[in-house]
Sequence to fold (264 residues):
Amino acid sequence: MERKPERSEGRKPARRVKAPAKSAVEELIRLNKFIANSGVCARREADELIRMGYILVNGKKVTELGTKVKSTDTVTYKGKDLTPGKKVYILMNKPKGYVTTVKDPHAEFTVLDLVKDATSERIYPVGRLDKNTTGVLLLTNDGDLAGKLTHPKYGAVKVYHVHTDNAVTRNDLEAMVNGVELEEGTVGADAVSYPDPDDHTQVGLEIHSGQNRVVRRIFEKLGYRVRKLDRVSFAGLTKKNLQRGTWRHLTPKEVSMLKRGIFK
Fold:
């Protein structure tokens, strides 16, 4: 019978060396993600800031896309150091007369004026609604989510209630679904309908496209002038129980649904 060799008196067992904790290893993140998580803009817009030389890392201008930084690096934009903060998600029922750019020297009001007391974090609108368009608008500092919601391939649906100067014909409704030729190419609606069967100056339109002023341009191309435009839904979020000009924080369930892509 084999026996284990006896351990000699006074000999201490070998001490196991622990591997360094994962947290001790400095994680690198892409610069555009760092900027987006700081609440400046979405990741695609952050790439533009980098390309144009507006971003400094540790005091040096960085223009190469794909650059990675450490959490301890100093990232500066327009003379201010950026710091990724906690994620904030705010849903607004945008009123008429407010622009959705973060800063506009020519605008009297921006949507950020309406949420200035909502959070201390820097947030920005996801996508754009023009000055005279009302309705559902999401604001956040989550660059990953903002990029997903504004990218065509993820399919975030937008639903609009359109009021026109003249009755819209059924042929033109069909044309909207089949596709209307705009400057950037053919753009089509996913679905259209008459919200009021007796009033054909009102049209409900569902669309994935996020090009600038795309709904107004579709109607203008077909010979109609949009008198009123209201976004009633965005990525499954509605303005239910939100008075015009008011806002609320998204619920954890709503945030989870957006991140999981359950918004079609």
